[in-house]
TrEMBL record:
Superkingdom in the source lineage: Bacteria
Domain Abortive infection phage resistance protein N-terminal intervals: 29-178
Lineage: Bacteria, Pseudomonadati, Pseudomonadota, Betaproteobacteria, Burkholderiales
A Pfam family hit: AIPR
Protein name (record): AIPR family protein
Abortive phage infection protein C-terminal domain: residues covered: 236-556
Amino acid sequence: MTEDEFHAELMQMVATRGAATADFSVAAFTDLVAGALVESGDIQEFVPLPFKSPNGSVRIEGYGFADEGLTLDLLVAEFDGGEKVQTLTRTAMESCFRRIEKFLLRAPKPAFRDTIDVSHPAWGFARQIADQLSGISRVRFHLLTDEVLSSAIKEIPPQQDEGRELSYRVWDLRAIQRLVASAEPEEIEIDLVEMFGESLPCLAANSGGEGSASYLTVIPGAWLAAIYNRWSGRLLEQNVRTFLQAKGKVNKGIRKTILDEPDLFFAYNNGISATASQAEFVQQDGAIRLAKLRHLQIVNGGQTTASIFNVMKKDKGVNLDRIRVQMKLSVIRPDLVDEMVPRISQYANSQNKVSDADFFSNHPFHVRIEGISRKLWAPAPEGVLMQTHWFYERARGQYANAGAWLTPAKKRQFDIENPRGQVMTKTDLAKVVMTFRGQPHIVCFGSQKNFVQFAEFVGDSWKDEGIDFNDAWFRHAVAGAIIFRALERSVQKADWYSQGYRAQIVTYAIALMQHHLGKAGQALDFERTWQRQTPSNELLSALLAIGAQVNQRIVATAAKSGIANVTEWCKRERCWEDLKGYVDTSVLDDLEADLVSSETASSRRRTARKDQKVTNEVEAQTLVVNRGASYWQLLLRWAEAGTVMTPSELDVLRVAARMPSMIPTGPQSVRLLQVATKAVEEGWAA
């Protein structure tokens, strides 16, 4: 896709998002790019906070904290929105950075906060900065723009302010294209000699075949901290990044060892496992030395890495010169990275309690939901002739790439059948599902941390080959998304809304509805919303009335609880408990047409489970037959020669080995696929 083509595509994405949420273009653009930055690991969270001083000299679009509060990310946008690509000059760039720098500099001053309405989220955030600034060791300023950065600007050097590192990053059109339209936003290239003055001695462990090779080395703690300081969360393979966010506090034991017993760190710590798509070695004194790495990903040991980095920032790097970390490095052929890295990550983290659903896009849940989304046609809304799909994007860039290489005619057909406004990402789905499951305080933690909890839910619920996750489940999830997005638009336009806390208002209002219906023995009729592809006016009005109460209450109770930043208050379970006891939800009692009894909802779920069970068995039988008798005969011989398989597993293998004279039944086929998976995990290869 050319630069001009992507620019046109980006404008469409911004327009679609703006229409879906009733946001201004700048807010929609910022939300789009910031979401991609969170998913890529460049920032850990994004909290929208559009604020501009009356004279325009101070501006901010949002913020996020990282590294247990040591790092503060501040975002500002320069959005042109025109048809032609413009160039961002150095003068314009510096002007943008000055506006957001001023917010940081003035936030601690009461006189500045007095100029902000106390009900505006910017006031609470300014108070939070004033309280926490002394503990922030790094501030990263991000400028998001749909323009192209002038080629005359090669780098923006970091600065120091009262011992605090200030760094600057421009996400221009080209960088955004890498973020949004490709799986890898920016290549990670580490030149050890350039960074640290020398290469790293290592030992060639073994070759994993044509696709990989493994090495063992010991990396200085100070080097590891410096590398993490440069590339941050992008170094952590996405599964590990999410797992770290689930862990919460940085491992105190690792930090204590570094501070108190640095010489024993190597003995106590398990080290890290890493992958790279390419490595460059040099020979020195007859030994192999690692000189360069490309696309380094830490797949196990992210907690160790983050702890060492935190000692560098929080404890001024004490003892890091005495820390050594063992590292197992697997160099994976580039075309096999997407296949092998998630598997290495899964096996490397098998000793930790990490749900299978944490291993994102390749998990059967995401594959199934993607498949359902591609085959299930949504009913045409009233006045529309064409049926469409709700496109589930299980991997970043899927939607953009799906239409990128089509002919113009096929592209038009694709766009009609898969409207951009009906794209649903993994984090979109997680936000909707967790809201309707009654976890609004978790949703308020942001997309990545909420996804951790969603992953746990999926992992715990993926039983009996995931029969709970079926066509009906997907229809209900989409209906929930339709309600969620409609309420976002309605809140944005409400006369009581003051341009703050919309995300919190929406998730809490819907969760309160679910809480009320559950107590009343009722459930929302998701099928009705799916068939209409829009919520009823009555349902939307009721949710809006609840949202107005939520808006008023969260501001009041945050102040009463001594919490300046309302968004932080909304992350607490106490906030959820307070709202359940305070907000009047009786307006929902009049929604007869939108409701069904809990018994009816349960009956529908049981029917959908039965249908999915039959579908699973048919699909399994097809796979078993397609693999052929020779496959199962080989597996049977391997199984009979060992002690891994149980007698019942051997029996079902004997049935498959006798095809075509005997054809395994549906349930037997499901069991056979489980047996095959078990065999592979135990080392068998077909």
